[in-house]
User: Which sequence fits this backbone?
C-alpha cells in the first residue's frame, strides 16, 4: 500500500503469485491419500475448473462471465477447506514453500477436462436439436 492507503503497483503480481501457490497447494491436497475421497474429488474439480480454458459462462459475457469464476472457485476452495484435514493442508503448504514455483502438469487431467467439455457440448447440441 502507498501513503494514501491505496494498493501499490505490485499488488496484482503478488495476488497472482499467491493464487498460483494456492492452486499448487490444492493440487497436492487432492493427491494426498489421507484426504477423504469426496474431498479429493472436490479439490480436483476445483483445480480443473480454475485452470480450464473453458468456463461455465464464457468470460466475454458481460459481468456474468467473470462473476462465475469469482464465485465458483472461492466457493469450491472454501468447501474443500471444510472437508480436508488441517494436517493435509499443512503438509501441502510446507511442500509448496520448499519447492520451486511451477504449476503441476497432468496430461490425464487435461484429457479429462477436454472429454468432459466435449460430452457437455454434445449433450447440449443433442438437446437443442
Assistant:
Amino acid at each position: 500500500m502507498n501513503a494514501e492507503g491505496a494498493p501499490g503497483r505490485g499488488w496484482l503480481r503478488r495476488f497472482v503469485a499467491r493464487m498460483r501457490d494456492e492452486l499448487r497447494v490444492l493440487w497436492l491436497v487432492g493427491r494426498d491419500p489421507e484426504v477423504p475421497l469426496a474431498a479429493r474429488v472436490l479439490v480436483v474439480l476445483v483445480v480443473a475448473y480454475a485452470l480450464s480454458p473453458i468456463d461455465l459462462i464464457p468470460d466475454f459475457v458481460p459481468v456474468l462471465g467473470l462473476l462465475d469464476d469469482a464465485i465458483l472457485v472461492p466457493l469450491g476452495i472454501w468447501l474443500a477447506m471444510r472437508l480436508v484435514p488441517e494436517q493435509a493442508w499443512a503438509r501441502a503448504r510446507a511442500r509448496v514453500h520448499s519447492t520451486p514455483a511451477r504449476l503441476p502438469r497432468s496430461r490425464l487431467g487435461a484429457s479429462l477436462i477436454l472429454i468432459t467439455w466435449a460430452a457437455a457440448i454434445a449433450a447440449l447440441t443433442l438437446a437443442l436439436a
